[in-house]
Amino acid sequence: MRIQQLIFFLLIGTFTLPASASLSIEFWQTSSGARVYFVENHALPMLDISVEFAAGSSMDTKEKSGAASLTQHLLSLGAGGLSEDDIANMLADVGAQLGGQFDADRAGLTLRTLSSDRERQQALDIFSRILQSPEFADNILSREKTRMIASIKESSTKPGYIADRTLMNMLYGDHPYAMNDAGEIETIKTIQRDDLISFYQSYYGAHNAIIAMIGDINKQEAVRIADFLTQNLPKLSEKNKNASIPPVKNPQGGIERITHPATQSHILLAYPGLRRIDPDYFPLLVGNYILGGGGFVSRLMEEIRQQRGLAYSVQSFFAPLKEKGPFKIGLQTRKDQSEEALTLTQDVLQQFIADGPTEQELLDAKQNIIGGFPLRLDSNKKILGYLAMMGFYHLPVTYLDDYLKAVEVVTVAQIKDAFQRRIVPRNMVAIIVGAMEPAGD
């Protein structure tokens, strides 16, 4: 098959498995301590790999906020004697694609490559250099700092960005989850090459690594690849092998109003929500689908858009992390309706927490969640994301099979109980960016 045809498979959605098929997930640890999750699938001549580390923005210090993001970003901009142009051209030569993942908990890279020997070996050689021998060149760092600062300056004028950053600071205070993933302008200016080297050596060790693989190789080949990609990673100290994030404290509540020239108000409410491993995970997940996660069939959408016409859309969601990630509700509305919209949102939430969902709402939510679940597993890329998430948060290899069973057994009483224990409306934080300006004297 010609290389152009093979590259085509990398660019399309890459349907991989029948929607009803259970995945056969294999797990092992490399001799260096990396944890590996692998699915063998020969449907297409390709291989997807991700390598992630506990090296997200929550590992930053306030003095060097942005070092975590810059470290992850510069990995592929010069490594193992190859310039960023060398890396880009050599990957393009074999039709390989490089990607990345970065959030408060995780940082890492992904590789999609053809499984044929020449293409795969060249792509893996480059990937290995990026992971194990990054150079963090001064001139590249200087350029990327300038770009990042310019990006933050541009974003900081936008109401959505202002709302989210203000909300996260109100919600998390001094907790590491309050830090901006990208860093702050003043701290980015101070970051030097040695800071990136230090961060890399502190957190990018094999003991911190989660490798996920799916594609056209067998387990023996997968074992060799995992060893090859991690054998020369930094040796971590005992402290950094077990780097932890402090528990999240619940806020005391508060509303902040910020004027802005935007034509609409951006409204956000939040409260500490879920850990990825949480006994209330499925009652809160299913309950949120009914409250605000289910699109047009949700309570919030029905009351705020359909009944009152206060917003085009409104949604709520949980963003689970290693510690309690945020539970958020968000909407946009006309400035003169912002207070009414905020009050109605609070009222809908309070009523949902007090009464819980109806049996019919629960039945409909289960049918939609279970019916839509196969679409989450219809490509190598999506499956890879699940494998990486499962590995990072120490979820069982049966998680994907267990998921639907757990959704199916959720009850109205469990949802009501979980929301009443976990979400306290009077203590939620809220922000309106684009609030009505005070009347003049």
Task: Write up this protein.
This protein has 441 residues and is an alpha+beta fold. Helix content is 44%, strand content 16%. It is built from 17 helices and eleven strands. It has helices at residues 3-11, 67-74, 84-93, 117-132, 138-155, 159-172, 185-190, 193-203, 219-230, 238-241, 281-293, 299-307, 338-355, 359-372, 380-392, 399-408, 412-422, and strands at 26-29, 35-40, 46-53, 97-102, 107-114, 209-215, 254-258, 264-272, 314-318, 326-334, 429-433. It is globular. The model is unreliable at 1-21 (pLDDT under 50).
Largest sheet: 6 strands, mixed
Output the CATH topology of the largest domain: Cytochrome Bc1 Complex, Chain A, domain 1
Structural class: alpha+beta
How many β-strand stretches? 11
For the record, what CATH class of the largest domain applies?
Alpha Beta
Shape type: globular
Instruction: Give the overall average pLDDT.
Output: 92
**CA-atom Rg in angstroms:** 23 Å
Number of helices: 17
Order of helices and strands: HEEEHHEEHHHHHEHHEEHHEEHHHHHE
